[in-house]
Amino acid sequence: MEPVSVAVSAVLPAGGSGERLGGATPKQFCGLQGRPLVSYAVRAMERVSWISDIIVVVSPENIETMKSIIEKYGHKRVTVVKGGVTRHRSIFNGLKVFAENQSSNRLLQKPEVVIIHDAVRPFVEEDILLKVVTAAKEHGAAGAIRPLVSTVIASGEDGCLDHSLERARYRASEMPQAFLFDIIYQAYQQCTDHDLDYGTECLHLALKYCKTNAKLVEGTADLWKVTYKRDLYAAESIIKDNLSQQICIITDLKEAVAQVGFLLHESLKSQVKVEAISISLSKNDSHLQNIFSGECYNFLCINDKEYATEEIQQLVDMLEKSNIPLLYPIVLILVHLSISENIFFSIELEELTKIKKFAREVKKKNILVYGLLIQCKHW
Ligand SMILES: Nc1ccn([C@@H]2O[C@H](COP(=O)(O)OP(=O)(O)OP(=O)(O)O)[C@@H](O)[C@H]2O)c(=O)n1
Ligand SMILES: O=C(CO)[C@H](O)[C@H](O)COP(=O)(O)O
User: Fold this and answer.
1) Domains parsed from the chain with CATH numbers
2) Is there an atom of ligand 1 within 6 Å of 57 CB?
């Protein structure tokens, strides 16, 4: 992906009460696979290296909750800001922190481009963020759109149809949106109370107060906003589906083993998201920690060592120490390569019995261990 040449930061409004979803917990703090919804959106932003600061705006009573989420999930580059009574007021509070540099704990630079993204839209990818940022740099404002699924109609005072819009000409405005910071900030400064209390569209503010016609960028279907209870179930299904679509291949530093890892990576990458790493498990590897916190649940661990149980035990220990919620089964496939001219496997029968016993034990923790022995006679 092309590097971004401007300073970019993001504001995530997360200060709502989730009335339409119902329940005591505002939707952004509802757990999906054990992790709060807001944490998915923060993580999506955090994974993008060219986003400098992430402002999460929450209601005053949820500031401590948000801070503990940041701590628990190890979020970086995040500042928590007090929200307002409406979404626009919350976003304005988030922007003010950059403009007035009023954050008490960190020095925040005013970005050239600011992304605004609802904290309840967890599936935002780098690709669409890059598109809206690039378009905002050129046009002053940009936002993701989707085709309408229903026709928009207006009712008259008598409750009967007044008129109907031609669906093909209209789009649903989604998020993310991006703006030249000065444009959106000036727009918010000029807003009336009516705008701040009843408005629902940031792009409209840029048009109304700064005469900026936003560029509209076609977004993907999973940018939708979690609004009703059914959306939580849909989001959870997507998360589960994504989890089953990624695998991490771990090899040690030995060339022959790393080579097998590389070949596997090449053959699997068209079907699933594969991360292949070559490390020494005895060291506390930060790359592996990052993969754990990215919530990868499938691991293929290749080695040619005689004592494979130690290796797998180290991996399980590291997994347990990480914050990955073990609500979803972790699959660990241990591939033992026997690279010798000898027809016998280098792994001993006793070691295999140990692995089986170990697999039975960790199954209780929702970690499924499988073993595969491969004899490579003519390496
Ligand atoms: N005072 C508010 C209201 C909303 N939001 C945020 O704006 C985003 C989109 O708003 P919406 O889906 O309307 O959230 P809620 O206001 O919480 O939902 P509802 O309208 O059903 O109460 C959410 O991330 C929400 O937390 C905010 O930061 N501050
Ligand atoms: O789609 C959007 C921007 O265009 C916003 O997410 C939407 O307007 C939020 O509005 P509401 O708080 O009324 O759900």
Assistant:
1) 8-235 (3.90.550.10), 245-375 (3.40.50.360)
2) yes
For residue 301, report the phi and psi dihedrals to the nearest 5 degrees.
-110, 110
Query: Which residues are 273's β-sheet partners?
Result: 246
pLDDT tens-digit profile of 97-140?
A: 999 875 555 578 999 999 999 999 999 999 999 999 999 999 99
**Distance from Cα 6 to the centre of ligand 2, integer Å:** 27
Query: pTM of the predicted model, to two decimals?
Result: 0.84
Supply 210's token pair: 């700064």
Q: Which residues pair with 10 in a beta bridge?
A: 54, 115
Write down the ipTM of this complex: 0.96
Tokens of 259: 């080579």
> Tokens 């054990």 appear where?
34
Token readout for 200 is 């629902």
Ligand 1 contact, 176 CB (< 6 A) = no
Length of the chain: 379
Report which protein residue has its CA nearest ligand 2's atom 2.
Answer: 174
